[in-house]
Amino acid sequence: MSTPTTVAADRVVLFHYVLKDEAGEVLDASGEHPMVYLHGHGNIVPGLEKHLEGKVVGDEITAVVPPEEAYGVIDENATQRVPRKEMPKDLDIKPGMPLRFRASDGRIATLWVTEAKGAWVTVTANHPMAGKTLHFEVVISGMREATADEIQHGHAHGPDGHHHHH
Ligand code: ZN
């Protein structure tokens, strides 16, 4: 099997990136190791996945992704206050902390703490990057065909496909 070079569904793509907001402040970046993901399975924000489609190894890509194609727009009604006593006692609750719980439909949902003072904790369903237009600078550094396991699971198992996980 030859090594693929074009980003397409069911290929594992490696890339380095710097993510900035509209003011040019760095929000996130890949470190020494590239980001590894399975293309076409919604593992990265939709707007970036769209920009990477059809690109080749070595390409440098600048992608401006609006909130609607990233972490969503801010929903002003997604914030609520929860009594501190309803949360685990041993949990050191701090602003910015994600709280995962099982919703009534059985799905795992995430809320983020925005404030924790006294008897109340304020939480929001808005992702910390909601409402932000994301500016990505990406360099595609590698690629391979996904294994059958990865396609079935809907995610990459690391750069070489042999990583132990869940
Ligand atoms: Zn898996």
Q: Can you characterise this structure?
A:
With 166 residues, the protein is mainly beta. The protein folds into 2 domains: 11-71 and 130-153, Roll (Chitinase A, domain 3); 76-124, Thrombin, subunit H, CATH 2.40.10.330. 8% of the residues lie in helices and 37% in strands. The chain is built from 2 helices and 9 strands, in the order βββαββββββα. The strands form 2 sheets. Strands 1, 2, 3, 4 and 9 form a 5-stranded antiparallel β-sheet that branches. β1 and β2 (26-29) form a beta hairpin. It is globular. 20% of the residues are buried. The model has no long low-confidence stretch (mean pLDDT 93).
Provide a concise account of the structure shown:
The protein is mainly beta and 166 residues long.
Shape designation: globular
Name the hetero compounds present.
Answer: zinc ion
Biggest β-sheet strands, sense, barrel = 5 strands, antiparallel
SSE string, helices as H and strands as E: EEEHEEEEEEH
List the uncertain runs.
Answer: none
The end-to-end distance, rounded to whole angstroms, is 28 Å
Task: Tell me the helix content.
Answer: under 10%
Q: How many structural domains are formed by the residues?
A: 2
Radius of gyration: 19 Å
